[in-house]
Design brief:
Radius of gyration: 20 Å
Strand order of the largest sheet: 3-2-1-4-5-6-7-8
Number of helices: 16
Shape: globular
Number of strands: 8
């Protein structure tokens, strides 16, 4: 049995806590919100973020970050990406040398263009940072619906340890050394999902969704490979797999926000209605800046930014995408 601290009690942190506790791990969940912790203690259920999912009574809850971190075999950092740096900074005094911290959020820091495990390493240099990502909506993991993800770490021993900790009959874990590719896939797919949702809001069909997913993974892979990620990662679970589920699922907050924007809501109105952190809103600018930095063509990302921040309508953005100059789908393929 491992001692695990889950830092963050949102939908994903709650689902992961349940998964680990049901495996017999000793789980402590931290939140900065006293009312949230009190609700979890009394109800054994997150009424707003994961309603209907009952949590094992063995889980401990606290607002004391030190007690959630110290003495744990593994920490799961499950706060929204915009709070990764501040939470890591607060955790740093309590983290031991070599303590494993598994990031499960998805995003890119807009001000620095850093992936989240790099932020963890910067704020907590003594930590052993890893990542767990893939097509894994909390609403389904919390109901034991079979799910498959990837654990990424710099060394195989750490990745395999994370794999053993999380693996169950309904939660399959693969391993990979490509932490950069895993993190980029998780962040960039949220931006493409906003476009897919907007297309749904405009009343487009399956043809449009398939086009956005397919061309979206091409954009993600181009940028990721230019930054040092591996092509295989973008065509695996944390690339195309996560992109498919986020663009198509009713559980996807990014798709829902995009849908509302497609129907004419502003970015702020969409975020207010979703009532959860829409990670793609924060990653969109970073993705566009990275595309410019690495001189990568990312037309879908460009149009998402235009809709979010420049006043372009979703309909105008879709027309712009459709009327671009004709392209070869795979330029590397020779003509015979």
């Amino acid at each position: 049995m491992a001692k695990i601290g889950v830092i963050g009690a949102g939908s994903w942190g709650t689902a992961i806590s349940r998964l680990l506790a049901n495996k017999g791990q000793e789980v402590t969940v931290w939140s900065i919100v006293e009312d949230e912790i009190q609700m979890l203690r009394e109800e054994h259920e997150h009424k707003s973020k994961l309603p209907g999912v009952k949590l094992p009574e063995s889980i401990l809850y606290t607002t004391d970050l030190e007690s959630a971190v110290q003495g744990k075999d593994l920490l799961v950092l499950a706060v929204p990406s915009v709070y990764t740096r501040s939470t890591s900074h607060s955790m740093a005094p309590f983290v031991e040398d070599g303590q494993i911290i598994v990031n499960v959020a998805k995003g890119i820091e807009e001000s620095t263009l850093m992936i989240l495990t790099d932020i963890i390493e910067q704020e907590i240099p003594q930590a052993n940072a890893a990542v767990l990502s893939g097509p894994s909506h909390a609403e389904e993991v919390g109901r034991d619906i079979p799910t498959t993800v990837v654990a990424g770490a710099k060394d195989r021993k750490t990745a395999e340890y994370v794999q053993r900790i999380f693996m169950s009959e309904t939660f399959r874990v693969y391993t990979s050394p490509d932490m950069l590719g895993i993190e980029l896939g998780g962040a960039l797919k949220n931006v493409i999902a906003l476009a897919a949702g907007a297309a749904d809001g405009l009343g487009c069909g399956d043809n449009t969704k398939a086009a956005l997913i397919t061309r979206g993974i091409a954009e993600m892979a181009r940028l990721g490979i230019a930054m040092g990620g591996r092509a295989e990662t973008f065509y695996g679970l944390t690339g195309i797999g996560d992109l498919i589920v986020t663009c198509a699922s009713v559980h996807s907050r990014n798709r829902k926000a995009g849908f509302l924007i497609g129907q004419g809501r502003t970015m702020q109105e969409a975020m207010d209605e979703v009532q959860m952190v829409v990670e793609g809103m924060y990653s969109a600018k970073a993705a566009r800046t990275l595309a410019q930095k690495y001189n990568i063509d990312m037309p879908i990302v460009k149009e998402v930014n235009a809709v979010l921040f420049e006043g372009k309508t979703a309909k105008e953005a879709l027309t712009e995408l459709m009327l671009r100059d004709g392209k070869i789908e795979h330029p590397q393929l020779p003509w015979t």
